[in-house]
Each structure stands twice: as C-alpha cells, then as structure tokens.
C-alpha cells in the first residue's frame, strides 16, 4: 500500500512539474499578480501582523511581490532555512541579500531562529505541489514542512499556495502528512479545515 501511495504521489509531482515548466512568462506574471492579491486579502482580512512565507524556487508560486508588500506594511516575516537534519530553521530577513542554503536553495540573510519560532506567527504560508479539498498537502517529498508542523503542540493557521489546477478533490496521504487550514490560488482563498 505504501508503495502504491508513493507511486501516485510521484505521478502527481511529475504532472505538476510539467505544467509549471510549460507556463509562459506572461502566465507567470498573471499568476504572481493573482497570488499577491489573494495573499494581501488573506493577511489583511485576518489582521495578521506576522507571517511565515517562502522565497520561490524552481517554479513555485511567486511570492516575491507579496514579500515586498509585507516590508512596506511593516509585517514581521519569517522565511525557512532547510537544515541537513530535515528540520527548518526560520530567518527574520534583513532584506540585504541571500546566501546559498544547505541544499543550494537561496536563503535570506538575517536573524536565525529555531524550528519552533514559527509557532508564534499569526499565519503560515507554505509552498505545495498540490493540495486537496480536505486539506491534504502534497509537498515535494523531503517532508520539511510536515516535520516542522508535526513538532508543534499548536500551530498557527496554515495556508498552502498553489496554482488553480493544483487543487484536487482527493490526494494520497500518509500519517505523517499534516493537513492545512486553507488554500491560496491566483483566483481564490479557500478554507478547507477548521483551525487547530
């Protein structure tokens, strides 16, 4: 059964990678603008003054314009830094540049905080490969966010950011897959679970 679930997850990841790679520059700009507008609506609607987010890499939904907006608004931001032990540290960025992280992924310069620091933000905004209508989030297979969420007694509301076509009715899941509160796409915000 586990092998079957893993094969299905890999199949979906392959489809999403292909779709994202085929996206044109014009489409990417439209997606970025839509996601920025939806994230601003979510953050302002909830009155969030602190968020965790991510710097986009490898075709992930682009949060760069949203992050620029958070700076203008004085919103406290934490960004993840992957550790080789499979956990995430959190960085309060100085916005003065980036360094190459443990896996070659750009990470911001700034104050480095523990994996549990993210438990104090008002809202977590996480990348995903896909998400389903019950809150199952499919990542890219390394489990960083699931481990981080699983280590907290109580987490803030968690929203997965994906393209519109990456919202599925159901996705394969395992016990270690931590469900999200909601979904943000370029066209909508969708609550899928009650908050913990």
UniProtKB/TrEMBL annotation:
Enzyme class: ligase
Keyword set includes Membrane: no
Required cofactor(s): Mg(2+)
Alphabetically ordered keywords of this record: ATP-binding, Coiled coil, Magnesium, Metal-binding, Nucleotide-binding
EC number in record: 6.3.3.2
Record-linked Pfam families: 5-FTHF_cyc-lig (PF01812)
Reaction(s) catalysed (UniProt annotation): (6S)-5-formyl-5,6,7,8-tetrahydrofolate + ATP = (6R)-5,10-methenyltetrahydrofolate + ADP + phosphate
Protein name, UniProt field: 5-formyltetrahydrofolate cyclo-ligase
Species per Swiss-Prot/TrEMBL record: Leucobacter iarius
């Amino acid at each position: 059964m586990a092998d079957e679930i893993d094969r299905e997850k890999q199949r979906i990841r392959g489809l999403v990678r292909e779709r994202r790679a085929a996206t044109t520059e014009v489409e990417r700009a439209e997606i970025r603008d839509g996601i920025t507008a939806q994230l601003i609506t979510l953050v302002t609607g909830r009155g969030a003054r602190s968020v965790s987010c991510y710097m986009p890499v490898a075709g992930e939904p682009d949060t760069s314009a949203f992050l620029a907006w958070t700076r203008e608004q004085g919103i406290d931001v934490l960004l993840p830094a992957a550790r080789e032990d499979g956990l995430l540290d959190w960085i309060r960025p100085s916005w003065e540049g980036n360094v190459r992280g443990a896996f070659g992924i750009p990470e911001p310069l700034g104050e480095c905080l523990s994996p549990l620091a993210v438990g104090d933000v008002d809202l977590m905004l996480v990348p995903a490969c896909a998400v389903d209508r019950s809150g199952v989030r499919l990542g890219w297979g390394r489990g960083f966010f699931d481990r981080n969420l699983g280590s907290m007694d109580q987490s803030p509301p968690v929203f997965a950011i994906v393209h519109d076509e990456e919202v599925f009715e159901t996705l394969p899941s395992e016990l270690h897959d931590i469900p999200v509160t909601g979904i943000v796409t370029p066209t909508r915000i969708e609550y899928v679970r009650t908050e913990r």
